[in-house]
Amino acid sequence: MSFLSSPQSSQLIYEFQPLTPAGTSISSPKIVDMAMPAMEVNFIEWMVPNGPQGNLGWQLWYSNALVIPQNGTWIITDGEIGKWDVNQFPQAGSWNFYGYNSGSYDHTVYLRFLLNPLVQAVATLDELIVIGGPSDPNPIMMSSNLFQDFGADSVTFTPPIPAGEEIVIPIEPPAVP
After folding, report:
1. What span, in angstroms and rounded, lies between the C-alpha atoms of 42 and 85?
2. Which of 9, 56, 90, 94 could disulfide-pair with 107, CB 3.0 to 4.6 Å?
3. b/e burial code for range 102-138 (CB count within 10 A of at least 16 → b)
């Protein structure tokens, strides 16, 4: 079953203060694990205090892949604060901070991840749409409420059926008692 995002206001904050020691080379950056439970990341707030003067570079990674900055470079800043809207980014869990510091003093980046719990879509048996007959080894099941929540009046998709054919399932509005 797939997961749906919870409302856009953040309910939890995870804060990290990764320190990059002086003399940390760009070829062997400091890596700090920022483990969080599986949650939706809405925003990332960050602050680099005055002091690095171009000697500190940092990146954010998720599951061994560079996420910020997307162009593969390093964020190099001094005395700045920022906030990124990252609703389309990976869910919380396997985040890492990578940092180098060519200066003579240690430097810290202050990070806050603003999170929401993931909400699992749940349907009762009478709310499920089943596509496939008794002989189908892989029927498709989904909740009709899932699509009503998004304001859809029908669902169109192409499962493994004869080429070029589509199945359109009308979604009936819930009965008013």
Report:
1. 6
2. 56
3. ebeeebbbebbbbbbeeeeeeeeeeeeeebeeeeeee
Q: Cα–Cα distances in Å, from 68 out to 71, 97, 139, 155?
A: 8, 10, 39, 35
Which residues, including other chains, have CB under 8 Å from residue 176's CB and lie 6 or more apart?
none
**Most confident stretch, 17-21, 84-88, 139-143:** 17-21
- CA-nearest of 84, 88, 111, 108 to 13 is 111
**Architecture of 3-119 per CATH?**
Sandwich (2.60)
Tokens of 7: 């409302």
Which residue, among 96, 32, 46, has the nearest Cα to 76 in the 3D structure? 46
In this prediction, residue 9 carries a pLDDT of 67
Which segments of the chain belong to CATH 2.60.120.380? Answer: 3-119
